[in-house]
Each structure stands twice: as C-alpha cells, then as structure tokens.
UniProtKB/TrEMBL annotation:
Domain Acetyl xylan esterase: 1-332
Record flagged with keyword DNA repair: no
UniProt source species: Agromyces intestinalis
Stored Gene3D superfamilies: alpha/beta hydrolase
Active site: S201 (nucleophile), D287 (charge relay system), H316 (charge relay system)
GO biological process: polysaccharide metabolic process; proteolysis
UniProt name for this protein: Acetylxylan esterase
Molecular functions (GO terms): carboxylic ester hydrolase activity; serine-type endopeptidase activity
Pfam families from the UniProt entry: AXE1
Record has Membrane as a keyword: no
Residues reported to bind substrate: Y106
Highest taxon of source: Bacteria
Keyword terms, alphabetized: Hydrolase
Length: 337
C-alpha cells in the first residue's frame, strides 16, 4: 500500500474547520435525556443511577475460566431498548475496580466473553458492549436488535436513516454508548469515578461519542476511528465502510447537502471538541479504512489533552497487541486511585 494521506509533519498540525450544526448540543442533550427518561429517570444523576440499577439485568454465567467472573448484562439504551453486554471482572480482586467500557468494530457483536480478556487481566472491570443490529458479519455473534426502521439505504449501516439526524442509525448507537457508561457506574464492583472508554475502528468512533456525550470519564482510548472529518475522508478513500455513503450518493443524486448535514451531528472530529477526559489515540499511516488525517482531525480538535501513537507502516490493523501494551501503560496512570 502506497502512502496516500498527509505527511507526518502535516498530520501533527492538521485541525480542519468543520461546519457544526447550530443545534448540535441541544440535539444530543434532548436525545440522551429522552432515552434516560424512557428508563424512568429524570435529569438528576441520582435518579439516572437508581433507574438504571432497576432496569439493568445481570446474570452470572458459568464458564471454564477460573480467574474471571462473567455476567451477562442487559441495560436500557436508546428509547429504553434492551442492549446486551458482557461484564468481565478479575476473580477475587479488591473492589471497587476501575472500569473499561469497550465498543466493537464494524459488523461484529460482543461475541463470547472469553475472547477479550486483556483489560480484566490487567485488573479492570470490562464491559463489552454489543452494537445494535450488528454481529452477523464476522466474529462470534451479537444479540442486540435494532427495532427502529429507516428509509432506503445502501448495504451496511452507514446510510441507514441518513437523510435526517433524528432517524440516523448512529443516533441510536451513540446513545447506547452513553447509557452503557451510565449502567456500568451502577455496578457495586466498579468505581464510578474511574471509568474509561475504548474501541477500534467503529468502536473507536463510538468511544469518541461516549467521551463527548458522557460526563466524568477518566479517559478515552480510540484507535483508528471511522467517520472523523467526514467531508475529507469521503473523498479520500473508497474502502468500506465509508464507500457505502458514496454508493448511496451515486444513486440519490442531489442528496449530498442533506447527507453531509446529517453526518455533521455524528462526525468524530466535531464530537471530539466536547470531550472532557484525556485521550490516547492510535493510527496506521497506511490505513485506507480510517485514514490518519481523520484520526488526527479528532485528536487535534479534542476538548482537552490528547496523544496519538503512530504506526507508519501499518494499515487498519495499527499496532494491534503492541498498541494495547501502550494503552495499558498510559491508562494505569490516568485511572490510578
């Protein structure tokens, strides 16, 4: 793969000016307030905690693992819809624990609980969150339905309901992410003041949204997030999943203005400005799925301190296991009691 994006020195200072909707903050505040209300909570933090504790179901799962405890969790997401997750905790560890809420990549679901043990092995409670409507493309499955319909769409998820922000698929997904943070803070084994969010690719974008739309997180660790600096990346790469939007526009001629207006509510580089917790990004400079300029657009517009780890000769795989070691070392400092 040849280099196709900005050179490293340009990436480090790349901070695009993006058009933000005038009602951006009101849109998200209303969306999240309505979904919390659907679970029976008013605007107060205590009411949210009490309602979520009452509406969140947990069931201990028997596994062959002796070093970890696993709970099958269902919590209320967008509009109160049930969202599934795994809570994995180190067996016998002192409580309360710092927690990592992890969002998964495009097309996969939460899978099986034993597949992602790196964070609990490092002493964290880990909530692995399903992505509604996904989980049937790769991995080992998902269980969360998306009961809300949308208009015509290209195959995939990026164009579902894309003609208006109120119907767009990721409105529901991002709200689920905020509600996952709400839910994990109600667990007795979790320190609510030491919750971080993370994810790769689509999961990285969802982690950015959770960091922008939740209060009091200790850190965000997005790697190779998609849908960042949308006006640029749509014309820069023809790789999935961004090409789904190009396919849609190729058929729905004249819809570009409406589509870009919708996406501005969900652009990771716009959401990034609302983040209040420090961030630790990762990017591969040969990544055609989540181009590095999009990653840097989000990092350089981050609301507080942000750091980017570069992998000059890697694509969407980025740093893989090597990057997790760097994440764990960084987060240990941020989440220390």
């Amino acid at each position: 793969m040849a280099r196709f994006d900005l050179p490293p020195e340009a990436l480090r200072t790349y901070r695009p000016q993006l058009a933000e909707p005038t009602d951006f903050d009101a849109f998200w505040a209303d969306t999240i307030t309505a979904s919390r209300a659907a679970a029976g909570a008013d605007a107060s933090a205590d009411a949210v905690d009490a309602a979520d504790a009452a509406r969140t179901a947990r069931r201990r799962v028997a596994t062959p693992m002796t070093s970890f405890d696993v709970d099958d969790v269902t919590f209320p997401g967008f509009a109160g819809d049930p969202v599934h997750a795994w809570l994995v905790t180190p067996h016998g560890a002192d409580r309360p624990l710092p927690a990592v809420v992890e969002f998964v990549g495009y097309g996969r679901g939460r899978g099986l609980a034993h597949e992602r043990l790196h964070w609990p092995a490092a002493g964290y409670a880990q909530l692995i969150v399903d992505t509604r409507g996904q989980g049937s493309v790769w991995g080992t499955g998902g269980e969360t339905a998306d009961p809300h319909g949308s208009g015509p769409a290209a195959p995939g998820f990026l164009t579902r309901g894309i003609e208006h922000p109120s119907t767009y698929y990721y409105r529901r997904v991002f709200t689920d992410a905020v509600r996952a943070v709400d839910a994990v803070r109600t667990f007795a084994e979790v320190d609510p003041a030491r919750v971080a969010v993370t994810g790769n690719s689509q999961g990285g974008l969802i982690a950015i949204a959770a960091a922008a739309l939740s209060d009091g997180l200790v850190a965000a660790l997005p790697t190779a997030p998609i849908l960042c600096d949308v006006p640029r990346v749509l014309g820069l790469t023809d790789a999935d999943p961004h090409v789904e939007i190009a396919r849609y526009l190729a058929v729905h001629r004249g819809a570009e203005e409406r589509v870009l207006a919708t996406l501005s509510y969900f652009d990771g580089a716009i959401l990034a400005t609302r983040a209040t917790a420090p961030a630790f990004f990762g990017t591969g400079h040969l990544d055609t799925i989540a181009p590095p300029s999009g990653v840097y657009a989000a990092a350089n517009r981050w609301g507080v301190r942000a750091e980017v780890v570069d992998y000059p000769w890697n694509g969407h795989e980025g740093g893989e296991g090597a990057h997790w070691v760097r994440q764990a070392e960084w987060l240990a400092g941020e989440a220390s009691a």
